Every structure is written in C-alpha cells, then in structure tokens.
Amino acid sequence: MLHIEDLHATVADKPILNGVSLDVPAGEVHAIMGPNGSGKSTLAYVLAGRPGYEVSEGGATFNGRDLLAMEPHERAAAGLFLGFQYPVEIPGISYLQFLRESLNSQRRSRGEAELGGGEFIKLAKSQAALLGMDAEMLKRPVNVGFSGGEKKRAEMVQMGIMSPKFAVLDETDSGLDIDALKAVGAGINRIMRAPDKGVLLITHYQRLLDYVEPDKVHVLRSGRIERSGGPELALELEREGYAEAEA
Amino acid sequence: MNEVVKNRELKEKISQDYEWGFSTEIEQEFAPKGLNEDTVRFISSKKNEPEWMLDWRLKAYRAWLEMEEVSWAKLDIPAIDYQDAYYYAAPKAKPKLASLDELDPEIRRTYEKLGIPIEEQKVLAGVEGAAKVAVDAVFDSVSVATTFREELKKAGVIFLSISEAIREYPELVQKYLGSVVPQRDNYFACLNSAVFSDGTFVYVPEGVRCPMELSTYFRINAENTGQFERTLIVADKGAYVSYLEGCTAPMRDENQLHAAVVEIFAHEDAEVKYSTVQNWYPGDKEGRGGIFNFVTKRALCSGDRSKVSWTQIETGSAITWKYPSCILKGDGSVGEFYSVALTNNRQQADTGTKMIHIGANTRSTIVSKGISAGRSNNTYRGLVRVLPRAENVRNFTQCDSLLLGSECGAHTVPYIEVKNPTATIEHEATTSKISEDQLFYAMSRGLDQEAAVALIVNGFAREVLKQLPMEFAVEAQKLLGISLEGSVG
Q: What ipTM does the predicted assembly reach?
C-alpha cells in the first residue's frame, strides 16, 4: 500500500533521511520508533508533502501512485492523513467549517458528492462522541485554546471524519494522560484497522502500542531503518533503551 | 495572450464604443472635458436644481480652487490633471459591450466565482440593453420593487436619489447637507461638493425602525453615480437604519478619480449601521488603470445615546484614501469602526478612522484588519481624540496586520490625543505573516493552496466580517479569497 524506497531528504540543505526503505501492506499497522533527532517527524512531513522538506533521492508510492509528485491536498484526497505532533491553531475558523470545507474539497476531487450542512454535522458529532469529545468544542476555532491532550483527541476526530485509507500519526500519544491514551488508541483501531487500510505510527514510547498492537516495529536512527521486527522489538526498546538496543 | 495586450484591446474597444456613444445618441448628455464654473452650472441645470443648490456648488468650487491636495497619507499618488476629466456624463456613459463575450475574461471569471446571475453580470459590465432585464431579474418582477417602495413609504422612510431629494425635500436636504462634512473639510470633499453627480438620501423619522436593510443595489442600477457620489443619511430621534453600500462584483468605470462623500446625522437615541463592500477595479498586476478612491465618510452622533457603526470591506481600487469617522457629541453616544482592507499587487491603501469624543461617557471601538499581499502597501491611520470636557470616555482599538509574501508593506499609524484624565484608552496592535504551519496544516486536510489562504484570511478577518449583514458577509468572504488568488507560492 505504502512503499518507500531509498528515501533521502534534506531540510535547509541538511540531510535528515539517508535512505529509508519501508513497505506497509494494506491491513497492517507499522510503528516507527527511534531516538530524538533520528528523522521520524521528517519522514512524516515528507510523506505528507510539507514545503521545505526536499527529497534528494529515492521515492515513495501510495497504492501504486507516485506520492511525491502530488501536492499536499492531492495526497489528502488520495486518502493519506497526517496526524500532527503539534496541531496548528487557525483563529477565527471553527472546526466544523474547517473540516467541512476540507472534506468536501477532498470529495470534489474524488468526484464524490459534497456533504450538506446537516449531514456533515451529524457525522462530526458522532465522530466526536466516539472519541469522548464534547461536540460543542467543534464550534470553537481550530485548536485555539485547546490543551495539548484536547488537540490530539481532536486530530483523531478529524481522522474519523475524513476516514482516510492511510494514516501517518506523528507522536499522537505525546502529552496524553492515560484515559486520553486509551481513547486515542481505541480510535485508531476503530477507524484504521481494516483490510484495506494502513497506519504508520510514529512514537517515542511503547505505551501507545499497548493499545494499538503493531504488526511490525521499525527503529529509525540517523535517517535509516536500523532494525525491524515484531511487536516484541518495541518491548525490548522500552526495557533497554535505544542506546542498549543499538549495541 | 498576455494581460497587457488584453487590457489594451479592452481599452480600445471601450474608447471606440465610448466615442460612438457620445457622437450619436446622447450628445447633450455630457459636460465638455475640464472643470470650471460653467461645468458646475451645467451639472446643476441638468439636474433641474433650485438656485440655492447651484449657489452651494459654486461656493464649493471657488473654495476648492484655493485648496491643495493632501500629502500626509502614505500613498504615492500620481499627479491628477483635473482639467483632463469629464465631470458629468449621462447615466448610460458606461462603456457599452455588445455582449458578455466582449468582457475581459478575468472579470467574467470573477463574476462566475461570485455566483452572479448572468443578467446582473450584464448590468455590471455595461452590456447594451441589459438594464431593463436586470431590474426585472433582480426584483423578480417590477412589482417587487414597488412593494419595497410602498413598505418604506408606509413606515415614513424617505429613500431617494439625492437629486430627487433636492427637488422633493429641499428643506431637509438644505438643513443637513454639509452639516457633518463641511465643504472646506478637505480637497476631495470640496471637489465633490461642487460637482457631485448623484447619490442617496435617506431620512428615517422619529421613532421609526427602518423595516429593511437599505441598499444602493435596490436603487435601480441605472445611474452612473460612482465618480462623485454624495450620500446623506439622517436618523431622527430614536430611529434605526442599516444601510449597505457597494457590491462585491468588481466594477469597471472609466473615470479614474472617485471622490465620494457620505454624511450621517444621528439624533438622540438614533442608531445607524453603515456597511460597505468596495471592490472598484484595482488596476492590473503592475498597477495600471485602477481607480483612485478618495472618500470622506463621517458621522455626527449629535444626540445623546446615539450610535453609529461603520463596517467596511475594502478590496478594490488602486489607491484608497478613506477614514470613516464619528464625532461623538451627544453624551453617552457610541462610535464603532470595523474594517478589513486588503491590498494585492501594486494597490495602496491608507485607511482608518477618527473617533472624536466631545460628550461625556462616549465610547468607541475600532477593529482594523489589514491584509497585504504582492507589492502592495497597506496603512492603518487612526485618531482617537478626547476633548477636555468629555468625562469617562472609553476607547478600545485593535489593529492587526497580516502579510502575505515579503514584498508588501503594513503600517500602523495611531494618533491618540487625550485632554481629559478620566479617559480609558486601550490600543492593541499585531503584525504577522501568514504562517506556513497554518497553510500546510490546512492543505494536508485537503484544501488547495488558494482555498487554504482564503480560509486563514477569513479567519483573520472574522471579527469584522461578522458585523456584516448575513448575505453581504457570505459574499465578502468569497471576495477576500478571490482578491488574493495567486498571491502566495
């Protein structure tokens, strides 16, 4: 489903990714772990098409299409979702307006009918409820005045509304208390665990993996996949730390 | 075909048709080029004005001769040759196109994006023979227009072109004309006083709440009033009226110089809400051919507890010079100014407000949102003045600037003069660039770049947009997006 081959990328002329190769077949959840500065967020941004993240070598395809040739909004329409580590505030625009415009823009480019106001609000409310979020919060401006945990929960509500084919989740677990962590984990399983979907779960810690069990775990270091393994690799890293695992 | 060529062709077409128009049908309907006392007399006689009106105009003209153009604004204004312009043309002097196919495709595309019905597009573009049809289209049928007028009449509201009002309600016009903006107020207001072509007169009698939003749009688009428009609104004791000016569709006009005057007079407990969407032709990407818009707008809150609220969305014109102001004379009177000024390409705007606190317990609120893109310059200039006898004045000013790109300018020039120690004055100002984080976040959710920019800009302007009447607000939102197309990336 997502195929990354020998991906090299630079940020402000500094090489960050130095040949990442990775295959996530449909129906699987892969976790990317690694120490700070190993290139985890850069990988997420490159996949989503953030300006300033230059690919110097290699490539990535998504369901056979050249992912890197697409604009960020085209990647979204193709079914790619990025859960942000630091969700961004957009003052003056309510979550409802933002998500409705975004979703309808995706639907238009896929040749699907747009959702009307009533239909959309029903969808948004049900997704918020499933993640234990008060639907009133969707009337507030995007991420403005939200706590760190609320922002992350809201990212998952967005994912529920968009119902993407593939999610890249960049440290979605950071800043969550235990209840929120459970809710987010359950959300990921509910929305993304399907034979035709896939997830790349970027995380620093093992704890989210207690709730979302990965099919594979990869360790990213210095911009390369250093090791790959099953879920037990995450436990080993948790026990021994990245430095030990390296040795 | 490049834009320059297109524009040149369009201009040639316009000037050809224009000449044809003058030489045949409407020969006596325009004053010769240039400005002198005869021009003023000609305008006055064309409008069958009474003697006092002619005298008033002539007095203004003579005063204007001794005045000088303003130079304090942060504007680069090319020299204007006042003798090389027409000061009176008959209503139908807009460039005539045989059909919409002859219209600049850029403008046509904008009409379509705004969702303007075909028949209205024809009126806006000045297509031959369009007016009658469009009136029917706008009002559905003539009877709707009649109903509209009847309803106002029943309420006792006078809503007429100012030319009609001068003839039909001379005492009212004579009493209030120039009472808020004196002839000699400034160079452009003085010029307007001498040569104003037409405009609107509104009188809402004591205790009457005007039953509908009054819009220039309803006043049948036949008159060509853009150049030197004159508006006078009087709200008697306890009256209320909401007035909408302008149109979101880009308006072409071959008169480059526009100098309008708007006066609002609010008696005791009266309230006037004045909303503007200004989208005159801004010129091409290099700034050629746009409208110079020098507007004087002022309200006198004469009576106690009166209130005037200005809301403006300024996206058009090559040069905008405009400071809708409130003189808060009545005790407890309230003045508000909500503004979005957007400049792109080579546009220049120097706009803001003046809040003059004369009465006790007067309050004012200023919210200004400047958006600059391209190589434009956008200045907020505002004065808050508290006079010695004005006790317990409150003012709150917020001015925010948003920059798109690195070649544009945003400037904030607040003047605060407080002569009474009991005043509470607050001023907040921010300047920010449109953030790449916001753009990427919105795009990653599925919005293309233009939609993402439009969304963020609309969020930035939200506080002002929500002051507009509903239908106007929806159009204004679209307009902000369209005006910024191609400005990022």
A: 0.96
In this structure, how many other beta carbons lie within 10 angstroms of the beta carbon of residue A164? 25
In this prediction, residue B483 carries a pLDDT of: 85
Convert the pLDDT of each residue in B124-182 to its tens digit. Answer: 666 665 443 333 333 333 344 556 777 888 999 998 888 889 999 999 999 999 999 99
Q: Which of residues 115-144 of A touch B (CB under 8 A)?
A: 141
pLDDT in tens, A111-122: 999 999 999 999
Phi, psi of A182 (to 5 degrees): -65, -45
Asked if A137 contacts A95 with a C-beta cutoff of 8 angstroms, the reply is yes
Domain ranges of chain B: 3-133, 154-483
State which H helix or E strand residue A218 sits in: strand A216-221
Encode pLDDT of A71-101 as tens digits: 999 999 999 999 999 999 999 999 999 999 9
Written as one letter, the residue type at A54 is E
CA distance B8 to chain A (A): 36
| Burial status of residue A64 (CB atoms within 10 A of its CB: 0-12, 13-18, 19 or more) | exposed
Domains of chain A: 2-246 (3.40.50.300)
Give which of B429, B401, B394 is closest to B414, Cα–Cα.
Answer: B429
Residues 148-187 of A with CB under 8 A from B: 158, 162
Q: Which tokens sit at B426?
A: 């607050």
Top residue of B445, B447, B467, B480 to mutate, by most chain A CBs within 10 Å, is B445
Q: Are strands A141-142 and A90-94 parallel, antiparallel or unpaired?
A: antiparallel
pLDDT in tens, B55-85: 999 999 999 999 998 888 898 888 888 888 7
Segments in A110-147 forming alpha helices (H): 117-130
Q: Work out the average pLDDT over A229-245.
A: 81
Q: Do A73 and B459 touch (CB under 8 A)?
A: no
- The answer to whether the Cα torsion of B222, B318, B349, B285 is positive or negative is positive
**Mean pLDDT of the B399-404 span:** 94
Q: Which of B262, B222, B259 is nearest to B245 (CA)?
A: B262
Is the CB of residue A224 less than 8 Å away from at least one CB of chain B?
no
Strand order in the sheet with A29-33: A80-83, A166-170, A198-202, A29-33, A216-221, A224-229
Under an 8 A CB cutoff, do A72 and B443 touch? yes
Asked if pLDDT for residue A161 goes beyond 70, the answer is: yes
pLDDT digits (tens, 9 = 90+) for B291-317: 899 999 999 999 999 999 999 999 988
Residue of A nearest to B460 (CA): A92
Strand ranges inside B33-183, DSSP E: 158-161
CA-nearest residue to A91 within chain B is B459
With CB atoms and an 8 Å threshold, state whether B447 touches A93.
Answer: no
